[in-house]
Structure formats: structure tokens, C-alpha cells
């Protein structure tokens, strides 16, 4: 018991170190130092959290000759996974990155399953020792099998084509010329260690089959630098729509330490309309519609002085009485937009992944004002939060399926 307590203290010390690193990298304005410290902060924090689970799993399964080796391999691969994220980036994901992240998903499911089983063990204490021993043997075999099944099931959900969702949003004052305007909403593609060119090429071809009027990408497009991923996203230039493809940053673009290069590359080389606290007005005769976009709120936390969400600046110059469609990556930014502007008709967001896999749904739901789907905030304002196309970290989707969405704007009079 004393050894366990000392181990917990050491791990807690690492967690405190991670928190200190967070505060330190926020206060340093030099991008290179900020980026390195941010990496250190993320790795230290994740390794600390995973170490608690690894210690728990090893203590549980070391008595099982069948599952001890499996637990050790899973633990080792789990702790390697987030290092692989920074070290092995190419046009398409490789075995070296996919397998450790799958192990990470299995690690999470095993920890949760073992915890639930241990609670069950505690409930058996009032009964005979014979029942308790039988239940312990059952637990040591049942939980790992379930974890493997859930990991594979969740991985298959990421390999299968994303769901195509459809929503119709009433817009007060929308000119009939824009009635049923069709927007394809993409979010959280996360091109990087586990998503690459093959998926982007498929996505472009799939979106083009719907012949949209506009395409919007609401952040978290990439997880590495332009140098590493320029070829992987190249085919985005072939997205076809009447009014173009609109893009805003997500928090992960700032994690790359290459956000300005990404904005330049996407705009100048791929022809995307980048909305860096800016807007773009589309016209049909004397009718107009304003697409606006704001930087992600993570920019402020990372001391990007020239990147911070500013809905007022983004919409300044939109014609009076013109409906406003705002792109804001995080639901918290959507809430900020609604508070900051006298009028915003629709905010399109992402970020939450719909929880990605249970039970992450619970903290994600509690941490965000809007979780997933369409919200009617007021008679004149709606928010739509995409569950996203891919994932971050473990290639798993459990009770939250990836999607891209057809958003139809419908004329509605006040």
C-alpha cells in the first residue's frame, strides 16, 4: 500500500508539472518556444493520465498467465502512441501510427471495463468466497475480450464511410433567391498521423456528387505542418460548389505551430476562402448573404496576438439586413458570437466529435454549451454542431458516428 501511495504521488507530481508547463507556454510569445513547451505539456499530461490506467491494469492482470502479456503489450504501445503522432507523419497513415493508437483505445476500454468489474467484485463481498473467486476469474477473461471487441468495432466505425446528415434551417429575411441554398458542412478531418490523402481524395469526390452551393470547413483540418501535409490535402482544391469553399481555423491548427502558413497555403494554393475574422458576401442580383468566420478561441490561450475570435470585426461590413452565417470551430465560440452580435442567423461549429467514444461523451457534453446537432437558440438564431468526419488520438468511434452534413437554408418570414 505504501508503494502504491508513493507511485501515485510521483504521478501527481508529473501532472502538476504539466499544469506549470501550460502556464509557462501561455506566457511566452516566441512561437518556437511556445510550440515546444506545448508539446511537452501535452505529452507529460497524457503520459501521466495513462500511467494511472497502466498501473491499474498491470496490477489487475499480472496474476493471469493468459492476459498478462497482452496487458503489457497494450500498455507499452499506448505510451508510444502520442510520440508516434509527432514522429511519423506522411501523406497516408502507416502501421507504425495506427497500431499504437488502436492500443490506446483498447487501453481505455480495458480500464473502464476493469473498473466496472471491480465495482461488481465489491458487491460480491457479502456472498461466499467461492462466488467471489469465480467472479474474479470471470472478470480476468471477460473484460479483455470485451475491450478487444469494442476496439475493433469502434475502429470499423472509423473505416466505414461517414454518415450523411441533412438539416433544414429557417432563416428570417432570407431572400427567395437563396431559398434552399445547399451548404455542405465539413469539420474535424484531422489530417495527420491517422488520416491522410486517401481519405481526403474520397471526401472530395463524395462531396462533389452532392453538387452543393457552398462548402464550409469549420476547423481542425490538420494535425501537422504544411511541409508534412501539403500533398495530403492537395485535392481540396478540387472541391466544387457555386460559391466556393469557406474555411476557419480550429484549435488543432494552432497546435501545429504553422497556422499562418496553413492559411496562406489553403488560400493561395488551393483556392479556399479563408475567413480570418473576416466575411465574404455572396450575391444574386440585389440579394445578398454574408458568410463570416472567426479564429478559434485556442489562439488567445496560446498568446497568438494576431489571432483571436472577434465576431464584431468578422461581420463589420456585412450589408444591413443581410442574413449572417457564422463559422466558429468550438461551440464556446458559437456562444461568444451570439452574445457579441445583435444578429446572427446560423452558427456552424464542430470540435466535440459528438464525444467520439463513450464515456468521453459525458465530460464533452458538460464542457460545451452545445454538444451535437441542431439547436434553436432563439426564434432567429440556430447553432449546428457537427460530430466531425474523423477522430483525434485513438481511431475509435463508439456511440458517436462520424458525419458530414447538408445544411439547407429555408426562407422564413418573421
Topology:
Layout: H1 2-27, H2 31-61, H3 68-87, H4 95-123, H5 129-159, E1 163-172, E2 181-186, H6 197-208, E3 214-218, H7 226-229, E4 245-248, H8 251-255, H9 259-269, E5 273-274, E6 278-284, E7 287-293, H10 298-301, H11 311-315, E8 324-327, H12 331-340, E9 346-349, H13 361-367, E10 373-378, E11 381-385, E12 403-412
Parallel strand pairs: 1-12, 2-3, 3-4, 4-5, 7-8, 8-9, 9-11
Antiparallel strand pairs: 2-12, 6-7, 10-11
Helix pairs in contact: 1-2, 2-3, 2-4, 3-4, 4-5
What does this structure look like?
This protein has 414 residues and is an alpha/beta fold. Helices cover 47% and strands 17% of the residues. It is built from 13 helices and twelve strands. It has a six-stranded mixed sheet with strand order 1-12-2-3-4-5, with helices on one face. A six-stranded mixed sheet has the order 6-7-8-9-11-10. A hairpin with a 2-residue loop joins strand 10 (373-378) and strand 11 (381-385). Helix 2 crosses helix 4 and helix 3 packs across helix 4 (95-123). The longest helix is centred in the N-terminal third of the chain and has 31 residues, at 31-61. It starts with a helix and ends with a strand. The model has no long low-confidence stretch (mean pLDDT 87).
Which characteristics define this entry?
six-stranded mixed sheet, elongated, alpha/beta, 13 helices, 414 residues
What is this entry, summarized?
The chain is an alpha/beta fold and 414 residues long. The chain contains 13 helices and twelve strands.
Amino acid at each position: 500500500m505504501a508503494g502504491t501511495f508513493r507511485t501515485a504521488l510521483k504521478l501527481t507530481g508529473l501532472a502538476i508539472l504539466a499544469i506549470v508547463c501550460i502556464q509557462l507556454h501561455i506566457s511566452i510569445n516566441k512561437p518556437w518556444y511556445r510550440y515546444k513547451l506545448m508539446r511537452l505539456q501535452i505529452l507529460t499530461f497524457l503520459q501521466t493520465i495513462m500511467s494511472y490506467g497502466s498501473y491499474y491494469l498491470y496490477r489487475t492482470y499480472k496474476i493471469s498467465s493468459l492476459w498478462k502479456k497482452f496487458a503489457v503489450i497494450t500498455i507499452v504501445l499506448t505510451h508510444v502512441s502520442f510520440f508516434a503522432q509527432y514522429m511519423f507523419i506522411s501523406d497516408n497513415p502507416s502501421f507504425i501510427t495506427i497500431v499504437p493508437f488502436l492500443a490506446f483505445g483498447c487501453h481505455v476500454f480495458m480500464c473502464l471495463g476493469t473498473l466496472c468489474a471491480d465495482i461488481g467484485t465489491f458487491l460480491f463481498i457479502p456472498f461466499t468466497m467461492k462466488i467471489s473467486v469465480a467472479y474474479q476469474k470471470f472478470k480476468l477473461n471477460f473484460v479483455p475480450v470485451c475491450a478487444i471487441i469494442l476496439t475493433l468495432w469502434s475502429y470499423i466505425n472509423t473505416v466505414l464511410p461517414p454518415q450523411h446528415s441533412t438539416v433544414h434551417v429557417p432563416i428570417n429575411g432570407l431572400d427567395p433567391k437563396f431559398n434552399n441554398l445547399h451548404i455542405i458542412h465539413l469539420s474535424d478531418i484531422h489530417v495527420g498521423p491517422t488520416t491522410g490523402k486517401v481519405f481526403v481524395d474520397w471526401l472530395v469526390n463524395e462531396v462533389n456528387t452532392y453538387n452543393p452551393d457552398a462548402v464550409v470547413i469549420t476547423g481542425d483540418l490538420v494535425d501537422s505542418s504544411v511541409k508534412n501535409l501539403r500533398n495530403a490535402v492537395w485535392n481540396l482544391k478540387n472541391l466544387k460548389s457555386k460559391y466556393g469553399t469557406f474555411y476557419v481555423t480550429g484549435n488543432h491548427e494552432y497546435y501545429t505551430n504553422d497556422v499562418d502558413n496553413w492559411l496562406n497555403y489553403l488560400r493561395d494554393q488551393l483556392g479556399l476562402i479563408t475567413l480570418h475574422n473576416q466575411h465574404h458576401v455572396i450575391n444574386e442580383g440585389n440579394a445578398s448573404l454574408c458568410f463570416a468566420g472567426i479564429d478559434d478561441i485556442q489562439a488567445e490561450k496560446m498568446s497568438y496576438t494576431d489571432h483571436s475570435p472577434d465576431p464584431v470585426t468578422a461581420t463589420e461590413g456585412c450589408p444591413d439586413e443581410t442574413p449572417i452565417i457564422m463559422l466558429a470551430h468550438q461551440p464556446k465560440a458559437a456562444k461568444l458570437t451570439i452574445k457579441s452580435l445583435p444578429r446572427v442567423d446560423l452558427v456552424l461549429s464542430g470540435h466535440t466529435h459528438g464525444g467520439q467514444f463513450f464515456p468521453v461523451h459525458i465530460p464533452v457534453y458538460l464542457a460545451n454549451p452545445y454538444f451535437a446537432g441542431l439547436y434553436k437558440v432563439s426564434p432567429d438564431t440556430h447553432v449546428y454542431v457537427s460530430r466531425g468526419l474523423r477522430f483525434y488520438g485513438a481511431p475509435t468511434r463508439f456511440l458517436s458516428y462520424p458525419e458530414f452534413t447538408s445544411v439547407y437554408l429555408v426562407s422564413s418570414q418573421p
